[in-house]
Each structure stands twice: as C-alpha cells, then as structure tokens.
Design brief:
Layout lengths: L1 H10 L4 H11 L9 E6 L5 H11 L3 E6 L6 H13 L18 H14 L5 E6 L11 H6 L1 H4 L5 E7 L16 E5 L4 H8 L9 H15 L6 H21 L7 H16 L9 H12 L4 H11 L5 H15 L5 H5 L10 H4 L7 H4 L4 E2 H11 L8 H12 L3 E4 L9 E4 L3 H10 L13
Parallel strand pairs: 1-4, 1-5, 2-3, 3-4
Antiparallel strand pairs: 6-8, 7-8
Helix pairs in contact: 2-3, 4-5, 9-10, 9-11, 10-11, 14-18, 14-19, 14-20
Bound molecules: adenosine-5'-triphosphate and magnesium ion (MG).
C-alpha cells in the first residue's frame, strides 16, 4: 500500500495528505468500502485527479459522471449503469443502453445484477459537481449516501465531489453523514512546484522556475485557478524564449527576458478565462509546429483576426444552434460521450421526420439543455462558473440569443438561437468544430 501511495504522490505533487487518507479509506482488494465520501474544495484543486488515480491503482471498478450533463434522472442512471457494466452505446448497437432505468428502485436492482454478474467487484461512482443533485428529488441525495445499504451485499462507494461545503447540502429530511475530505487551495509555492512539471526537457529547471515565478507574480492576483495558470504558462513560454532563440540573451539574463515577456503577459492578463484558443487546441497547434505543419499559422491568424467572441461564447453559440435545430430526443445519439463519429446513412436522411428543421426556424430550449450540449461538445473541462453564465447573458444582450418567455421564469429561462447557419458555420470553423456532423437531418 505504501508503494502505491508513494507512486501516486510522485505523479501528483502537493496532495500527499489527501492521497494517503483516501488510500487508507478505500483500502486494498477485499476491504469493504465506506458508503459515501464527500470531497470539497475549489475548482482545479485536484479532487478528480487524486480520486481517479487512487481508485484506479487500488483496482476499484469506477463510474465517473458529471452531474452537469444530466438534464433528467434517467440519463444519469443509464450512464452509470453503462459505465459499470462496460456497455458502450454506439451506432453499432443502435445506441442501446445496458437497461432502461428511470427510478431509484430499478437502479438499485440493476446495480445488484451488475455486481453479481461481474463477481462482486469493488465499485465506485464518482459524481462531479454533485451540488446539482440538490435540485433532484429530496430523497435522492440521502439515498445515494446509503446506496451500499440499499444494494445490500454489493460493495459500492459513492464519491460526491463539489466546490461547496457539506453544510450547503443537508436536505430537510436529513442525510447520513459521509466521510468528508477537504482539498484546500494550493499556495503559491505549491503552484510553482506543480507548474514546474510542465518544463520542456531542453530547458534547465532553474530557468523554468524563474519563468513560472514570473508568470505567477503577474497572474496570482487575478486567478489562482490551476488549469488557467497552466494554460497561461504554456501559452507564453514561447514568447519568453524568443530572445534566447535569436541569440540576444542567455538563460541568466533575467532582466532582458522580463522586458521581452512583460507586454505579452500584460496582454494575456486581460483575457484570463476568456481564451481565444482552448488548451487542447493549443497543444494540437504546438504538435503541428513541431512536425513542421503550417496549419498553425493559418488557424492562429484566422482565430485572432476574426476574434469577436471569447472562446467559450463561440461554443455556447454552437450549442445554442444545435439545441434550437435538433429535436431533443436525438441528443443522446449525438452527444453521448464516447459515441464515436456519427455515421450518416441514407436511411437516416430519409428518416420519418422529413421536414427540414432548418426551414421551420429555431425552437426554444431550456438553459440546462444548452449547458448539457455545451459540455459535451467542448474538449476542455469547464466549470459552470458565474463567468460562463455571464457570457450567456452577454450573448442575449448582443441579440445572438433570444430569451423566450416572461421574466417570471427566473429558475429556468428558455432561449432561442437568433443567428443563421452561416454565422455558426464560420464560428465553428474558427474553433475547428464540425457542426454539420452534429445536425439532425441536415443534408
Ligand atoms: P472541479 O471541482 O472543477 O471538478 P477538481 O478539483 O476536480 O476541479 P481536477 O480536475 O482534479 O480538479 O484538476 C484540474 C486540473 O489541474 C487537471 O488538469 C489536473 O491534472 C491539474 N492538477 C490539479 N492538481 C494537480 C497536482 N497536484 N499536480 C498536477 N496537476 C494537478
Ligand atoms: Mg473534478
């Protein structure tokens, strides 16, 4: 066990306490699992990373779901059952799930069946953004906390992950107290240590440490979010090394390097959280330059030249268009994770629904559906922060989206996409997203 903990702490620095605690709670094979663990801490503090690594090393069969993606309980139950049973809904099996399941009773029964069929392995369900579950039925959260009791002799653990503390969760009916594990925010030194892992091997540690401290000194007041800092560190490193490559300075020439990078960092500071390119897109672009491709300059210049909307807003617009023009019942087919590419057959195009959705105009959709589609089409991991919601309201102000219905619908506003297909297609091209692929009945 010590060896496993040591391995994981090597891969994930600055999280030793949490890794040790989690590993000792979960224990080795055959150990009974606790029924519920509650993880809380700010976004980007490594909750998911630590939990998935520990569970994987300890050989627990895991289902990992994000509650933001579920707009009804049925989708959630079926996704969990699919993951635990290893069912992959795809075009080959006509998108069939492990079982149709829309209530807790059936869910428990199917869990038991899966447990027995697989020889009673240790199982875990990780639920990201579990604060969303508070909107479900009041008995749902208490039931999840005692899932092990309900499934009787199945060894199953539910891990709720959230950015809110447990006090914000307790329903009026009471809750069986889970084991609580806190992930504190990283300190500045810890951030430096983690970011040092991004060092390209061709540069010395001292040089990279200087660079990371410099970036942190600029960004630390604006954001302490690790994924965002990671993105900025990777994005600006090339500019930092420019004087070295031109032979104008050497690694020790800190002042010269700082003078060169300062304007870049100041500029980047204005676009914290409002990226022009996503991290994964940036990484892909890096690979292309390394392999000598010239697509990079094309993508980059077209992205910056036509840049009117922040990166996430572009995806929000695409999601809004898809939500407006695709019938809701086809969402599962298009946006199920790991569904593979959607193959269009002649039969599909000839499908019963002959009417061209594009001709009848946009249909209103609820905010939840927009977000569910948004999360499934975006490559990066995005948190539903106020910043994202404010981008939605900006899009409404810019009249790119229309809010439908009266102001009395505070809880669940409905929107419509108010732009043409050509507009969406040019946005999609900028972010390298094949929108036609995801449109129902578009030919
Ligand atoms: P959320 O509440 O949004 O789900 P989280 O706490 O689950 O956030 P993670 O997804 O685990 O955060 O981490 C976010 C990113 O930061 C990931 O890319 C992860 O690899 C990286 N990260 C977090 N902590 C560490 C660490 N200690 N060492 C290396 N990378 C880390
Ligand atoms: Mg997480």
């Amino acid at each position: 066990m010590d060896e496993i903990v040591f391995d994981i702490t090597q891969q994930i620095p600055c999280r030793k306490t949490q890794i040790q605690l989690l590993a000792s709670i979960v224990g080795k094979a055959d150990c009974p699992l606790p029924s519920c663990i509650f993880l809380y801490g700010h976004s980007g503090t490594g909750k998911t990373l630590v939990t998935t690594s520990v569970l994987e090393k300890l050989g627990v069969l895991t289902s990992h779901v994000n509650c933001v993606e579920f707009y009804n309980a049925r989708v959630m139950y079926e996704t969990i059952l699919n993951q635990l049973s290893g069912t992959l809904p795809s075009s080959i099996n006509n998108y069939t799930s492990y079982a149709a399941c829309d209530n807790l009773g059936d869910f428990v029964r199917h869990l038991k069946n899966i447990g027995y069929a697989q020889g009673k392995p240790r199982m875990a369900i990780i639920m990201e953004h579990s604060e969303r579950l508070r909107d479900c039925d009041t008995s749902f959260l208490p039931a999840l906390c005692r899932l092990q009791e309900l499934t009787q002799d199945i060894n199953i653990l539910v891990i709720l992950s959230s950015t809110l503390p447990i006090d914000k969760f307790r329903p009026p009916t009471g809750l069986m107290e889970p084991i609580i594990l806190h992930f504190p925010q990283y300190t500045k030194d810890e951030l430096i240590e983690i970011l040092l892992k991004l060092r390209p091997t061709s540069y010395s540690e001292e040089f990279y440490r200087n660079y990371v401290s410099l970036v942190l000194s600029v960004f630390y007041l604006a954001t302490k979010d690790l994924p965002e800092l990671k993105h900025q560190v990777q994005l600006n490193f090339h500019a930092y090394c420019e004087p070295l490559e031109k032979g104008e300075a050497d690694e020790g020439d800190v002042r010269k390097l700082w003078r060169n990078i300062e304007p870049h960092l100041k500029k980047a500071l204005t676009s914290v959280y409002l990226r022009q390119v996503s991290s994964s897109q940036y990484e892909r672009m890096q690979c292309l330059t390394e392999t000598g491709g010239h697509e990079l300059s094309h993508t980059k210049s077209s992205v910056t030249a036509k840049m009117e909307l922040p990166f996430y807003s572009k995806f929000l617009m695409i999601a809004a268009y898809l939500a407006s023009y695709n019938p809701a019942r086809t969402d599962r087919r298009f946006f199920m994770k790991h569904h593979g590419k959607q193959r269009k057959t002649k039969a599909m195009i000839k499908a019963k629904e002959r009417s061209r959705n594009q001709l009848v105009g946009p249909k209103p959709f609820p905010l939840d559906r927009l977000l569910a589609i948004f999360y499934s089409i975006i490559d990066d991991k995005v948190t539903p922060t106020a910043n994202l919601f404010s981008q939605i309201s900006t899009l409404v102000t810019l009249r790119l989206l229309t809010q439908v219905g009266g102001d009395d619908q505070l809880d669940s506003p409905k929107y419509k996409c108010a732009v043409s297909f050509d507009f969406i297609r040019s946005i999609a091209r900028m972010v390298n997203f094949d929108v036609v692929h995801y449109l129902y009945n578009y030919s």
